[in-house]
Amino acid sequence: MAWLSGAAKSLHYRQLFAHRPHQKSTSSSTLGILTFDVAKTMSRLVSLYKSLADDQLVKLRKEIIRSKGVAYLNSKDEGFLLNLACSERLEDLNQAAITVARFGQKCSDLGLNRFDLIYSDLKLGVIDLGKLEYNTKHVLKIIERMEKSISATANLHAALESLAELEASERKIERWKNTIGPKQISNLEYIKQKIVAQRKQVQHYKESSLWNQGFDKSVGHMARIVCVVYARICCVFEPYISDLPFFSNNSNLRLVSNHNKRQNFWIRQDDENESEDQDKNEKPNSKSGPIRNNNKRFIVRFLSHELNPSSQDRDIESTPTQRNREAMMTNYNNHVFTLAPPHTVGGSGLSLRYANVIICAEQCLYAPATIGEEAREALYEMLPARLKGTVRAKLKSNLLKRDDEDCDGHSLAEGWRDALEEIMGWLVPLAHDTMTWQAERNMERQKFDSKPRVLLLQTLHYSDLEKTEAAIVEVLVGLSCIYTYENRCLPGRPATVQFI
């Protein structure tokens, strides 16, 4: 794929997106062992592409942002949350673009060889771009090819791991072959046969995966998707991010599906006015376009347009070791992650701890038989000292109140259960999403997952610390009362055992 005209005095970026028939790569080098790094970058790009589909954007706006947990603990400000979502997607894209640029240096094509310059100019908004359509036939074909390559590479990775295990078993038996009996010798022959078959399977997967593919073809597909995804982000989130390049309807860019004759908003502030935004004679097949912002443009000052991982700019004072330790555990250089203010759960370095507390409390509420006394003690020990004091004080207050009012234990337990189920209904999803967010980043090097990933705004990271701790205290006190009044303790334990 010829991306740039070598004879031109300036870079003709329109050629970068020109559709060309299949051409054999002029580069003699193939991906080889770099196949797995390329496949992981592809999976990240496909994940980003899918996360910007119409259904995902509607889900973000109408379900995630409006969910009780996000609205109560994180923010009710839609502008802030959309800004956060956009910034995190841009950061993911920047990480992928940096990797694509590194692979591009191994390509024979000049445009791919200097993709870092192209992407930098793209972010500055100074490029005369050609076709940057989202969800077109050609782009969908590229996505389909990338998904097939990712799947084949994942199979190759699994086959190589199985081969390594078999070879290790063979070496182990070979070391002891002089002392083993006939049965073990037959096992050795069986393992050798398995190794021969496994090597054939590995060779098959190498031929069908990216292993023997040239750099130009693989990197060319990734570079094109990087630019399409960036244009899509600008098109959708531009009303909330002032630094993004503005693409107007009058420009030569067509950022929406080529079935549309005009640019439409993928979601409206008021569904009653939906008919006013469309031509009466038109029935568009897509709702792609920018998020409408009827209010004043919302800007989060600390979110920078330059999201290069090497940037050292910090507008929010960093909190100490615990927060930095949690950032290191993600094994992921995330600028948005480190910008959580000190009054948030993530800014205090407590996201993972509180997520574990909430998930353990969920098990105690819905599956108490699976939680032993040691697990309950471990749960209590996970709490910071100040929270332990708050829980004890509230338990004591409730106990005195119960004794004074001579309340019926059963009805009180039922009341607590109803209250806890309501709280856990919006608190637990944030905890599970926190664990999922961490797992997706920690396991990125081991897995080839191209599904849309969880956003930070769905987690406890940007949750208000005071509100989150108040909810956790309420849950733990309620569980203690339920365990006491309903005698929910392990067999052989006295009925007076409390949860905490």
From TrEMBL:
GO terms for biological process: positive regulation of growth. It holds the Pfam family DUF3475. Residues 33-88 form the DUF3475 domain. Residues 269-293 are annotated as: Disordered. Residues 344-435 form the DUF668 domain. This is Avr9/Cf-9 rapidly elicited protein 137.
